Protein 1
Amino acid sequence: SPRIRFMSKKKVFLIDGNSFCYRAYFAIKELSNSKGQPTNAIYGFITMLNRIIEAEKPDYIAVTFDLKGPTFRHRIYEEYKINRKPMPDELVSQLEPIKKILSYYNIMIFEKEGFEADDVLATISKRLSAGNLVDIYIVTGDKDILQLVDNNIRVYNTHKDGLIYDIETVKRDFGVEPTGITDLIA
């Protein structure tokens, strides 16, 4: 009789690049190269990326970034994020080197004009989750993304030393199902 071989699901890590960059930038202060160019976000980003690769051994990794410019939300509501401070220039100057380094790792970068990195993360993760073939880990510190948690999607929280939110952890920590996160935050 033929043997049935069960294989474990592949692990996909989808990293919110902007969240990762901010985390790295503010975690390490005043690091620069011999020319005085800031490198703290670059160093921190790569250190955190390597830590995830070594500890979690993902089968696939992708990173999303926000593009400069308005999103569809700005067309709906002109004052969307109007009080948010712009990204510090020292961090902006490190984005392209980070993206270049990601290309050396052969890590795909996804960006879409008119959409935030979170929107791209949501689209990719929901499409992958529908096939029920992979375990998806969204790497971010953004609580809004917890609304996506389901049987195939988890959130790997960068602010809490790799705390992984699954359905039960969301319910325990927030008192609502993942689908209730938007109401809770609102």
Protein 2
Amino acid sequence: TTILPTPFNYRQQALLAVATDLPDPNNPNYLAHIGPYIEQCIHISKGGVFVLCTSYRAVQTLYNHCQATLGQRYNLFKHGEMGRTQLLQAFVQTPRSVLFGADSFWEGVSVPGDDLKMVVIPKLPFRVPSEPVQQARHERIVANGGNPFEEYSLPQAALRLRQGVGRLIRTQRDKGSVVILDHRVTRRRYGDYFLRSLPDMQRIQMAANPMLYASNDFHNPNSTPLG
């Protein structure tokens, strides 16, 4: 086996923006709270956005929120309303589009060029530990004297995050940003594990509102400030 260098200049092509002051993702009102920030992300990129969720409930909730506020200005699609291939075709062929996806949209999807300019990740992609397969693997690791979070859940989630981020830059001419709204990537001791798994992009970590201003500067350097 061999490891080859990336053909992409991530420092020039991509920005990683992390919000540090939003509520804990386990808060029951978390999705309602982050809805307005996702709206602003969509405005900043003027469409061409993937919102990669960790559950179908999150897909539906965030889609409903944005459809109610942005439905007349942008074309919103959600995972499940048609087949994945059809959904991607509709996303690419429709201007000012936003796709809310889960599971299969984190990997194996390629949208080069300006059709995809931003990937928003509301929550770090940890699997639900009560899923039968997850639970069985955790129990096996515990039986062998290991730590299931550090040995399985964390590496699995970091790989998933890397795959999701990998949807953004697909050619040497692509440019865009990844926005992570989950503050655990900066507040928990394991957060650095996630950051080290990602390409060497420009990075900003700050409160959500100034983070949005910085993201707007990246996408629209000659524009007026956000309202």
